[in-house]
Each structure stands twice: as C-alpha cells, then as structure tokens.
Automatic annotation (TrEMBL):
<keyword id="KW-0326">Glycosidase</keyword>
<comment type="similarity">
    <text>Belongs to the glycosyl hydrolase 1 family.</text>
</comment>
<dbReference type="InterPro" id="IPR001360">
    <property type="entry name" value="Glyco_hydro_1"/>
</dbReference>
<dbReference type="GO" id="GO:0005829">
    <property type="term" value="C:cytosol"/>
</dbReference>
<dbReference type="InterPro" id="IPR018120">
    <property type="entry name" value="Glyco_hydro_1_AS"/>
</dbReference>
<protein>
    <submittedName>
        <fullName>6-phospho-beta-glucosidase</fullName>
    </submittedName>
</protein>
<feature type="active site" description="Nucleophile">
    <location>
        <position position="376"/>
    </location>
</feature>
<dbReference type="Pfam" id="PF00232">
    <property type="entry name" value="Glyco_hydro_1"/>
</dbReference>
<dbReference type="InterPro" id="IPR017853">
    <property type="entry name" value="GH"/>
</dbReference>
<keyword id="KW-0378">Hydrolase</keyword>
<dbReference type="GO" id="GO:0016052">
    <property type="term" value="P:carbohydrate catabolic process"/>
</dbReference>
<dbReference type="GO" id="GO:0008422">
    <property type="term" value="F:beta-glucosidase activity"/>
</dbReference>
<dbReference type="InterPro" id="IPR033132">
    <property type="entry name" value="GH_1_N_CS"/>
</dbReference>
Length: 478
C-alpha cells in the first residue's frame, strides 16, 4: 500500500444524520418529520417511493427513528469516543422540525435551538469541526399534509427562514454547511428525499422535477443567506454519487451511461454552475415536463452557487441497453444496476468498487473545478460480538483502506478534496432498510432490528485502525 500525502488541514471524521441517530422524536417540542413515518419491513421501501397511506405513525408498527441510538441523550458519550479516534470533523444534520415543529411557526423552538448549541459546543470542546446539513431527508410532516411538501412553492420561503435562523444562531460555531443531502435521491425515493406523496394517476416526473426546482431555488437562497450572515463560512451541495459504467463498448450502452450520470449531475450543474443545462431542457421538452418558475428564479440560481461539492460514494453502477442483460439488474444502493463481473458485492448487494471512487472524484472535479468533500463512504455489514466482547471487522477495514487509498490517488491526480467523513462512525439506523443489523460503525451499538438491546457502545477493531489513519494523516493504512 502506497503512503499518500493528504493536506495538513484535511478534515478526517465521520457522518451521521439526525433522523438515523438522535431518537427523541417528539422530545423538546420537536414535530414529526419524514423518517418518523417509516416503519421497518417491506412497506418501508414502498413508502419511500411515494406510496404513502398515512401521515401519522400507525399503532402497533415499529418505527426505528423514534429512539434510534438515542444520540439525543448520549451525544456527549459518543463525541468523546469520536475525539478518542482523533476526529477533526463530524458531519451532522439539524432536524428542521426541532427548530420549527410545523415548519410555519413565527418564532423558532428554543429547546431545539439549544440542543444544537449544546451539541456544537461539545464538538468544539473536543476540537471537532461541525459540518452541518440543513435538510437530511427531513421535512416537517405538517408541510406535507398542508402543501404537498416540495411540490409547493410555499416551502421555499419557509426553508429560507429556517436556514437564516440557524445561520444566525450558530454563525460563531459552524463554518461548513450543506443544503440538501443527496438531493438527487428525490428522483429515486421521492418521499424519503423530499416528502413527496405521489398518487397513482399523477405525472410522476412532472411532480418530481417541479419539486426539484423548488429545492434548487431554496438551496440558492440558503447559499445567499449563508454568505451574508457568515461571510467566513463555506456552504456546499451534496450528491449521491457513483458513476455509471456502460456494460459494453456498444455506443448505445455508452450513451445510456452518460444519460444516467446526467440524471444526477443535473442537480449539481444547477447548484454549482447556476443554470439549467441544455440537456435538461431537451429532457423536459421530450418528456412534456413544464417547470413553473418565478421571474427572479434564474437570477437567484445564477448569482448564488455553492462553494464546494459534497458527495457520498458507496458503489459504482453499470447499465445496458440489452434486455437480456437488464433482466439481471439489481437495486443495490437504490440505483438500479446490472451486474458488473469485475467487482465484488456487499451482503446487501452493493457493488464494492474502490477504483470507481477515484474515477468518480476525478469526474466531479473535472466537471465543476470546485473543492470536493467526501461526506459519506462506508460498508454496511453484519458484525458479530465475540464471547470476550471483541468485534473483529476486518472486512470493513479492508473496504475503507482500499477506498481511502484511491482517494489518495485522486488527490495525487490533482483533485482538491477538503475532507473525508465516513458514513456511520457509530452504528445507526439504516436509511434504506430501517435495520440495525446493517452496521457501518467503528463503534458497535447494542440494538437489534426490533429495538431490543442495552444501547451499550463497544469499540470495534476498526476503531483503532481509523485512529491510526487519522494520527498519521492517511499515511498508515495497513
């Protein structure tokens, strides 16, 4: 393994989300949000795709987000463990409904504001930089019931008010922000990504892209507010990344892979370049999609672009125009992909492709020429606690070692990367499946898929490995 030279101020750390870690789902005046309505089991994926039958938790169903890993009460204990590993940064999200429980209050909820004050203070006490996402699969349920969530223009000023509120409150504590987590997920899991309930008879793409426009305008207004309120801060966008390979060198496969990549790049093209790309305009025309805009929208998008590109990378994808090949497609990591014979897969069918990480980083930097921030990367796997209490997760170490090495190669290629916050440094609820057995962390949490367990925290073998990686600034990966 080559030793790589990472920048001296590189932000090593981890990433979690409020809805997957905090719990305390109605404590401190918090209102209901999207993930509070997602139970475990088969119906979860249907709901995430927009087939929603109730906007209230159902009696008798188990909702893992309601308690999650109880980070809401245990954050000091967990941050102390992150500090022991040497974290330079922790990516978290603010739950919108902790600040504005219905999304429409004239004054924010002080208890919610104070919780994040305390959280950020605890991080800073340990020398850990907060990296904060404004909306991580998070819309107050009241706004879904009343307005249809992001399909309505009314959410734009409400989100702007929320953004201005937290920028003003935390301007001395938070210098790295992002607007929407994995904004392109809106096209794949519209309820999870944007709170969209899509009726059977609705024009699905029309609803999704109109909602996307509202999110893009809201993102630009948040960028504007951040630059005005916290001039020394940086604010970015965030993409669920992972390039598409053509299954063959057939030009039709190559063109389809390009189109699949553009499906995601569309969002970042607008947030980073400040305008709708020509290919998107043709796509709208071909699919009879009409985007309703306000007169000032194009100016807002143009003048308020992001400072950096945040992205998650778990796996690459492969696509084909051959119907026989497509028969064997999988839905690993939400994005459909035909099987790639040159790479392995995780227990959940996600492609393991470290080289794809380097390719994706180069692809993004070549396209945008803005700093990148790797804000999610990791391996979900089943961990076993040995009789002596040890957890040997060498498979996770191997995955992370190979991916960090390729990130080092990307930096050698000339790609500017400002930090790496691996996903789930402590075991949390899986967003896609609602499971606890799908673990990502360096720290084990004693909790099972039914919500049973003591919530005890146990250090895994990877805990000590990642500590060495950070201490050596990425030089010691073996």
């Amino acid at each position: 393994m080559t030793n790589y030279s990472f920048p001296d101020n590189f932000l090593w750390g981890g990433a979690i989300a409020a809805n997957q870690a905090e719990g305390g789902y109605l404590e401190g005046g918090k209102g209901l949000t999207i993930v509070d309505l997602l139970p475990t089991g088969e119906k979860r994926r249907e709901i995430m795709k927009g087939k929603v039958t109730s906007l209230h938790p159902l009696e008798g169903a188990y909702y893992p987000s309601h308690e999650a890993i109880d980070f809401y009460h245990r954050y000091k204990e967990d941050i102390a463990l992150f500090a022991e590993m040497g974290f330079k940064a922790l990516r978290v999200s603010i739950a919108w409904a902790r600040i504005f429980p219905t999304g429409e209050e004239e004054t924010p909820n002080e208890a919610g504001l104070q919780f994040y004050d305390d959280l950020f203070d605890e991080l800073l006490k340990h020398g850990i930089e907060p990296v904060v996402t404004l909306a991580h699969f998070d819309v107050p349920v009241n706004l879904i019931e009343k307005y249809g969530s992001w399909r309505s223009r009314k959410l734009v000023p409400l989100f702007e008010t929320y953004a201005k509120t937290v920028f003003t409150r935390y301007k001395e504590k938070v210098k790295y922000w992002m607007t929407f987590n994995e904004i392109n997920m809106l096209l794949h899991l519209p309820f999870l990504g944007a709170g969209l309930v899509i009726e059977e008879e609705a024009d699905r793409m029309q609803v999704q892209y109109q909602a996307a426009h509202h999110q893009l305008v809201a993102s630009a207004l948040a960028v504007k507010a951040c630059h005005e309120i916290i001039p020394d801060a940086k604010i970015g966008c965030m993409l669920a990344a992972g390039m598409f390979y053509p299954y063959t060198c057939n030009p039709e496969d190559v063109f389809l892979a390009m189109e699949k990549d553009r499906e995601s790049f569309f969002f970042i093209d607008v947030q980073s370049r400040g305008a709708y790309p020509a290919y998107a305009k043709r796509f709208f025309k071909d699919n009879r999609i009409t985007i309703t805009m306000e007169p000032e929208d194009e100016k807002i998008l143009k003048e308020h672009t992001v400072d950096y590109i945040g992205f998650s990378y778990y796996s690459s994808r492969t696509t084909s125009t051959d119907p026989e090949v497509v028969k064997n497609a999988t839905s690993g990591n939400v994005f459909g992909s035909v099987s790639n014979p040159y790479v392995s897969k995780s227990e959940w069918g996600w492609t393991i492709d470290p080289k794809g990480f380097r390719i994706t980083a180069n692809q993004l930097y070549d396209r945008y020429q803005k700093p990148l921030f790797v804000v999610e990367n990791g391996l979900g796997a089943v961990d076993t606690v040995a009789s002596e209490g040890e957890i040997s997760d060498d498979y996770r170490i191997d995955y992370l070692r190979r991916h960090i090495a390729e990130m080092g190669e990307a930096i050698e290629d000339g790609v500017e990367i400002i930090g790496y916050t691996s996903w789930g440094p402590i075991d949390i609820v899986s967003a896609s499946s609602g499971e606890m057995k799908k673990r990502y962390g360096y720290i084990y949490v004693d909790r099972d898929n039914e919500g049973k367990g003591t919530l005890q925290r146990i250090k895994k073998k990877s805990f000590y490995w990642y500590k060495t990686v950070i201490e050596s600034n990425g030089e010691k990966l073996d």
